[in-house]
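#struct-help
A.M.: can someone run this one for me? Single chain, 1024 residues.
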Amino acid sequence: MGHRIEVSSTIPDARAEQKRVELERAGLQVEGVHISDVYTIDADLSSDQPERVAEMLSNPVFQDSVVNQTRAPENFDYAVEIGFHPGVTDNVGTTAQEGVEDLLGTSFTNRTVYSSQLFFLSGDLTREDAQRVGTLSANPLIQRVQVKSREEYDTDNGMGITIPMVKLDEDPRVSIVDVLSVDDLELQRIGKMGIFDHNRSLTAEEYGQLRATYHNDSLNFGDLFEADGGFFQKIRRGPLALDLICMKAIQENARREDRNPTDVEVERTGQTWSEHCKHTKFADPIDDIEEGLFNRYIRGATERIRKAKGDDDFCVSVFTDNAGIIRFDKDNNITLKAETHNSPSALDPYGGAGTGIVGVNRDPMGTGLGSRPFLNISGPFCFADPNDQTFLYKGPNFTQKMLSSRQIHDGVVKGVNVGGNCSGIPTSHFRNVFDSRYKGKPLVFVGTFGVMPRISAGRPSHEKAARPGDYIVMVGGRVGKDGIHGATFSSEAMDSGSPSTAVQIMDPITQKKMSDALIKEARDRCLYTSITDNGAGGLSCSVNEMAKESGGCEYHLDRVPQKYPGLRPDEIDISESQERMTLSVPPENWQEFSGLMTSRGVEATVIGTFTDSGRSVTYFDGIKVADLDMDFLHGGVPQRPMTTTFQRGEYEEPDFEEPADLTATLHSMLGRQNIASLEFIAQQFDHEVQGGSVVKPLQGKGRVLGNATVTKPVLGSQKGVAVAQGVNPSYSDIDTYDMAACAIDSAIRGIISVGGSLDRIALLDNFCWCSSDDPERLGQLKRACEACFDYSVAYGTPFVSGKDSMFNEFNGFDENGNPVKVSVPPTLTVTAAGVMDNVNNSVTLDAKIKGDLVYVLGETKEELGGSEYFAMKGEQERGERYIGNNVPQVDWSINKNRYENFARAVEEGLVASAQSVDIGGLGVSLAKTSIGGKLGMEIDSKALFSRSARQDYSLFSESQGRLVVTIDPQNRERFEKVMGRSMCSQVGVIRGDNQFIIKEGDREVVRTTVDDLADSYKATFKDY
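D.P.: on it. Structure tokens below:
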């Protein structure tokens, strides 16, 4: 017997009004929206219990509730209910169930409470309009939509009771995968599309569509066949992302073992060998570089820097754990990690981005013996224009419609918002990048920094090792079908075969409880010897990675807590269901550890034992389902030597006259999506929780988004961590070497601008590439890696961690039904973290006082190749961006001297404000300084140290190494002496009024007001 509880507001509901405005913007004639929160309880309750539950779930001050009844508003035309599909994580339902259990003093064995939302709509609406409300509000991959007219609602006495219970028909047994007798084509099919599962019958229409889709692809077409007068398709479990070379290695291992592998063994090997986990494009030989790109250029740079620093080396652990570790002070270390969650975010932006942020939270938690997350990094998020109303389709004939650009944009922002806010971790750094080439697959970069004591209960916190005999313990959430093939899916291009099971939904509340119990208590009570997170590949990766520490493992998949019965052993092994950690717990500590977890409401289960057998052995219901050699599992992935080609991009140099009205041009630049205010994001994200925020995301009275932030990880200390990022994907069109160089210089310059210094900056590299089997794309990758080596070594800033995602493209159909491939531009995000000795010396970008002097540090050259200004002019004049050829160059020797001198000026208290000159150039940076301080500015363009005779090029060139600085006039002589006169130029003064003026002699180049500049800066996303 199910019970349905509806809770509605008795006062005006802000959520309902927000939804009405949203639907109105989408072109629907909606006059009113009323929202009811619905809780469906799948349990036999006594006569009074449903009413007691309803009282608990509603606030009597402003809400009303009904049980197993309807309470619709007096006037409505359609009712639309949105809930989750069976098996999808339902956080509201989970929290409600905990409340019900506490209230009734009981414990339900399985999922019992389900949540949904009911929208009552009034207005000039058709059924198609009401269905479109569902389309705009729900993701069909994870959510169900039910629509009823007023008449249907009254006739049916409401929406009815829907219980989204998972019912699995599959027989949860292990199966054998024949790799010994099949031909190479079938090996390819297994690697590309997965293990054969079963057949399903097709209609003639479905069969025709599949033939049309795959008529040029024998690999896929091989899964269609006719038999007994019918049409059938072989169903496979999902991509292993293994090519023929890897499948042949599995075949050869099967010959050595003298048996075919089980599905558990093949799936586990696929997860472990995936590009997502093994990073083969960086590890394999390439051209004459036998050791691979990573060892030559990334690890090689860090090793050279650490050796040069000697006793001043602040790196503690690099490239060996879930996150990099650097020294913070005499008592604490800092852990650093950033990664991407691109593929899942394309399918379900909210869930994909949300699991991205809570997933990267677990990396510091699983580094060393565990660190406490103190800071989240949000972005850069790389999107197509959210106003683009065209659609892409994964399937032919307008099937498998992708989400709109706006849905992806809003879903990603909301996902990271909820994941970070509900985890109690401040999110204080933001950046968006817009380019039409992110339409097929967005890039969602997220990061987390943690803090750990250098010594925990007598043990160095950065060291860990599972020991033979330790229990294998899974802690946190339960396992379901969500997240299956996530790692391998992320190693593939997006196409019609992309699995919906790759999507996961976060549960940050469960993770927060787990984090507090582990990091704040169990770690410092020495209750475990090693810890790692359950991320890509689930248990198959976490257990077996830890097993390298002890030399082997033995575990039982039937002991793993599951969300619902019926999961196959291979699914349990590779599921990426969230909020889980794997630990090694000595048997003598188990009772204390288990009791602690139980007291904190955290599920902990012994699923096996670490061994020194050299084998990875797994059981299910007493049957051995996997027995793999550890050396083969971790070291058996075959190398594939690669070759590259490279040709620098060459384009027609834009030829347009300098605009007569540069005032209007500056306003237009400030309104560009890549420059405009992201205040609408910053105000959603909590950056004050934990109390460590020093330099905020939004700076000054005018609330301008800064290039860097500063946070205190230890509240009792004056030391802090500055964070900045560099990302310039448009430069990749010309040369990825310069793109990478600019990304590094931009990230470092951001740290310098808020008061950091070069001697304590660590870098994180996140590569997102496309078509990475193509020699030209590999050539671009090699060029970028060369720049990473050159500039990290030059600046003395070591890489300590990183991540790559190598196949970011979409293969499908456009809005006209034509085949299309959409590849992201080669994108490298460099995150810089700088340890600051005294956060009281921090600097913000906003102008402070009338009469302060304005300086520009660095030289401006005609470097507009790939610039935002060229993109804008091209769009205005021909409908597509200009690219140009003169991409910004980085002169590290000059910049390094400038940055070191500026750090001394900050330390001496000579700087009132500073801003790194980034995308959009000097004109944009000067305007932001004025907007931030709500003070006018007067600039002499002749003093800008510009090599260009054109004012527009001087204002909008994106030359690197520059800062806009304001100082007290009394500090002028000392500031110029510290900086060196050849490296800085006073270009103007801060005014006390609202005027913003740029002059060339007596001629006004720009005249406007600070208020008008602010309006242009904030108008683009004003309604978001």
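A.M.: thanks! The mean pLDDT is 90.
D.P.: also worth noting: The first helix runs from residue 14 to 25.
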